[in-house]
Specification:
Layout (H helix, E strand, L loop, with lengths): L1 H31 L4 H8 L16 H22 L8 H26 L4 H8 L2 H12 L6 H18 L11 H24 L7 H22 L9 H29 L1 H7 L3 H13 L5 H20 L7
């Protein structure tokens, strides 16, 4: 029975990684205004006009992330209502969820979306996965946690991977604006590390996951829409296809993917599940290549591999020490 549970846990995490690997493609579709004609022809035998890539239908980053967060907020509310979970929180919890949760998550997703326009989506997610290494570094500096030898090795390996990814500039393998895209992806990892640590050390750390997600994604949606309106970058999805793309992204990420990942964590434990979840950027890279024809050179693949190894080592270093 235990072996069956572990097998189910592995399957859940792998499927969750697949869901999270597909969502960047959906975001990219909204940001670029559709899907490439050759991909649509391969799938449908023709290129439906409503789905075809058209720059006039491209949505601004702030609007894409804002609608994604709003959909995620609604989806997080559903399990709260079904489970009759109390949404009552303290003033401090509400403030910290808005500032650290919503603010950190907004910064993460906006930076990722900006990076998508400069470098391939798969590469963006790979670089974003430096966040476990950054979590270890921030914990050592701010919370005086001891930096383990495994964490130091992870940092050095991840730095080597980023260096390899950055070696070639301006090629199709690395994107049109790598000098901007790679730093943006790195900053998204830093923002997510802050968001991750806030969730661990803040007053809302022990709140029910669905309740916390409701407030965090709701705050993120408000922040994104406010920025979009102030900057004149608010835009409704231009057609039903774009609405479907954004809704699918929310359902895959916050309903199916999140539930599968939480089930995997329950069955496997947090460290093995997190380690297995490093498959996410692999799936993101593969889907990015299949849909948008994005490519990665051998050097970039090696760099991506080193970044993921660094992330994996950092996750393993987070394991609590066994008691004698």
């Amino acid at each position: 029975m235990k072996k069956n549970s572990r097998a189910v846990g592995v399957l859940c995490v792998v499927l969750a990684s697949m869901c999270y690997g597909i969502t960047p493609i959906l975001s990219n579709t909204a940001l670029k205004g559709g899907l490439p004609g050759d991909f649509l022809t391969r799938v449908f035998g023709r290129a439906p006009e409503a789905m075809l890539l058209d720059a006039s239908r491209a949505m601004p980053n702030e609007s894409v992330v804002g609608f994604g967060m709003a959909i995620a907020c609604v989806l997080s509310l559903i399990p709260c209502l079904i489970g009759r979970k109390s949404l009552k929180v303290t003033g401090r919890q509400a403030l910290e969820m808005a500032a650290f949760g919503g603010g950190g998550f907004t910064a993460t997703m906006l930076l990722i979306s900006y990076a998508y326009l400069c470098i391939p989506a798969g590469m963006t997610i790979v670089i974003n996965f430096t966040y476990p290494v950054l979590v270890a570094l921030i914990s050592a500096v701010l919370f005086k946690e001891k930096l383990k030898p495994l964490s130091i090795a992870a940092l050095l390996i991840a730095i080597g991977g980023i260096a390899l990814i950055s070696l070639t500039g301006g090629s199709a393998a690395v994107g049109p604006r790598p000098a901007l895209g790679i730093p943006l992806a790195l900053l998204s990892g830093l923002a997510y590390a802050v968001y991750f640590l806030a969730g661990r050390h803040s007053s809302y750390a022990k709140l029910d996951t669905s309740v916390a997600n409701f407030y965090i994604t709701g705050s993120a949606a408000v922040i994104c829409f406010a920025v979009a309106l102030i900057a004149g970058r608010f835009r409704l999805p231009p057609n039903l296809f774009m609405w479907a793309v954004l809704l699918s992204s929310g359902v895959l990420g916050y309903m199916i993917g999140l539930r599968l990942l939480l089930t995997g964590i329950r069955l496997l434990g947090s460290t093995p599940a997190s380690a297995l979840n490093t498959l996410e950027p692999v799936f993101a890279s593969v889907t990015s290549m299949l849909v948008f024809g994005e490519i990665m050179s051998g050097m970039k693949i090696l760099g991506a591999f080193l970044v993921l190894v660094g992330a994996l080592l950092s996750i393993l270093a987070m394991r609590p020490a066994k008691k004698a």
